[in-house]
Amino acid sequence: MDSRLARLCDRVAESGWLAAAILTPLFFNIFSSRVFEPDKLTLLRSLALVMALAWLIGTIERGLGRAESDGTGGEAWWRRVLGTPLMPQVLLLVAITLLATVLSVTPHTSFWGSYQRLQGTYTFLCYVIVFAVAWQRLRTRAQLERLLNAIVLASLPVALYGVLQRYGLDPLPWAGSVRERVTGNLGNAIFIGAYLIMAFCVTLERALARLRRVVGNAGTMADAAAAG
To answer: Where are the domains of the chain?
Structure first.
């Protein structure tokens, strides 16, 4: 049985990946110099650090003794990691990124990212932290349902804002035209397109799942009525 502190750390970690799924696509700051990416990534980096700290405290609280007692010691843990789909590729990508940063002609910029976008090794490692903590602590169907629902809910305002821009109803005075190339909350037509394509797949799954539940409940009620 996990301690209260360990359960609290799990809730903090889950709150972190839910906040990342909701706030990162929605947030932008018109009063900052770059408006979109640096502000989003600063937020995401902060969430990743909180998630990493919660995971670390929770892991320490559970203790190595418990891991050894239930047969999930260090060696077994590594076998699990390497046996998980995509994890070996992620670890390889992390190693390549770190090596490229060390060998870069401008290691400082490679690690911290440029002023315009902040897309450097540090940001990439924050992506990996969010992925790894979710992989480690997302354990129940209810957690998965909450994450998928969060992705769908966050995509709705983004899509709606894009529609407003397309029809010239955007109240914000952007420097360039956003009617022909809608940028939405992402600041770039390519970015919003990629995000909404991914969110569409999740939305379609959610819709089909709800439809199956409705059909299943209707069938159950019909059987009960026939039996009555």
So the answer is: 1-139, 140-228
pLDDT in tens, 119-174: 999 999 999 999 999 998 999 999 999 999 999 999 999 999 999 999 999 999 88
Rounded Cα gap, residues 104 and 107, in angstroms: 5
Annotate the chain with three-state secondary structure.
Answer: CCCHHHHHHHHHHHHHHHHHHHHHHHCCCCCCCCCCHHHHHHHHHHHHHHHHHHHHHHHHHHHHHHHHHCCCCHHHHHHHHHHCCCHHHHHHHHHHHHHHHHCCCCHHHHHHCCCCCCCCHHHHHHHHHHHHHHHHHCCCHHHHHHHHHHHHHHHHHHHHHHHHHHCCCCCCCCCCCCCCCCCHHHCCHHHHHHHHHHHHHHHHHHHHHHHHHHHHHHHHHHHHHHHC
User: CB-based burial of residue 57 (10 Å sphere; 0-12 exposed, 13-18 middle, 19+ buried)?
Assistant: middle
Residue 147 CA to residue 18 CA, distance in Å, equals: 6
pTM here? Answer: 0.85
